[in-house]
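Researcher: Structure prediction, please.
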Amino acid sequence: MTDSLLLDLTLPRTLDRWVSDFAHTPWRTARVEGWLFEGAPARRAAEQRLASAGIQATLRSSYKPLLHYFLEEVDCADLAAATVTYPVHPNASPRRFLLEAYPLAGLLPGCTLRFEPGTADLNYQVALTLKDGRQVSARVFAPNRIHTDPLGETLLSPTGWLRTTSPSEPLAHSDAAFETDYELVFARVLQTASEHPWPAQEPYFERLDIRVDMPGIEQALAVGHECISTPEALHEDIYFSLLEVFQRRSGRAAHDRRLQPGQIVPDVRSSHASPRLRIGLSRFDASAAGRQAGPDVSYQPLEQLGTAPHADRIAAEMQGLGGRRFGARSRQGRPVHGLYQAGPGAAVLISAGQHANETSGVVGALRAAQALQAAERAGGKAHFALIALENPDGYALHGELCLQHPRHMHHAARYSALGDDIEYREQPPLYEREAREQALALSGARLHINLHGYPAHEWTRPLSGYLPRGFEQWTIPKGFFLILRHHPGWQARGRALLEQVCAALGQVDGLAAYNARQMALYECHAGELPFDVINGTACLQSESSRPGAPLTLITEFPDETVHGENFRFAHTVQMSAVLAAVRAWQDIAGPAA
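Model: Predicted structure follows.
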């Protein structure tokens, strides 16, 4: 419920405006080429309306133009080979336009595809060889603009574009960037946030709601979980750009995860009407804390869950496990449940749901805890602390957003209701972070197994330079992988842990082939994998002096947006990683643990 409305604005739809502007007598016989952020059906319909007025129009997508060229203008089944020379521009990373072509390599399985770097000219050069031997060449324009973002950085970003030629009106010729409705909505969001008189201190609000209804592209692709979604991309751009606006306002450094602006909630929905933008402030409804997110799957065993469970189910599973209870309260008043199982073995802390849109780890952690307790009853050495859901406020928001878009990433649910990353919270009140502090104190764990996920399909910020700034290495999936962070002096034990866990993961049915497929596609578009690969699993090890256990093993499964059998596979892999790490740790820990 919005308490204070900051903006309610309806904008002209760019596609309708172009039809209206050109579909009259002075433009008859003209040639119009336009690029904008709309799907193929809407663009084809507009072309037909213009054709009926005597206008020859070709309307293309500003978002991922090379991919749309192959989807809309090439019969890919007839291709034998293709060479694509992609732009390399000084205001973008060298591989940006190759990444923007993703996942083209996965869409042409019977075609020999080669990518070559080109010049700063914003055109892809395409050379095609058909199966009958014919050669086809094309130039595919990638409309972009150079601009300055809220952090003061110069970026090159996709934009609308309009080219017109008219035999009867020589002065009507144009070839220039055109600010589309998609871009205008984004600009008005940033303008409103930048100009509003916010309080002097964080948090600036309890909840900032940004509701957008507008036409766009929502198209699944026949490669893994890939899709083209301009509503999802706008959600990502709004969310992270607003974090950047408030970081600058607070005086913090860019990407400081301690920033606490409040809960930022972009809700971007597809419609066929003119774009509408509403921005409002609301307070947290304390009564909502009991209305938890997620479907009711209480009747299904954990191993059968095909989607993230209701928070009540998570609490019930925690209650069903033995051990000592501990916990904390979230900023919005939700419980953070923890348990400590004492035992003779080397202690570990198992946690999940720090980033609440990464949900497979929650189920994986619960399944692992059940398996450890079953092993303990059979004479094992189970000794662990468990927090299966560290960020219940974010988890509730994730469930809310998934009611509209179950296959979107929803990074607005990544952080806490304060807007910060729980792990980086340093000052009281600690809220959710307090549960982790209790877990480490109770268990004395020197190993923290922290289960995470990341996007199962491409992650972009098209209006902010295309790549997700600060998260560039996460823009496309690269399989299940591990990150090992260690305190000074713990490097050898960390490496030994990685090697033993990767050896065990090599035995998980289907995982090696899954990783190999994703890594191969990653390398086609992003280049060589910047990680070590141990027994088929990518790994990254680094030294860190952050507070916490001397060793932190972070799992990363591309789980955002996956459901059904894919989700079951994800939480099975997460569980397997936990159990492998616990087993390995018993041999590696030594007296210090």
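Model: Residues 565-588 form the longest helix (24 residues).
Researcher: Thanks, that helps.
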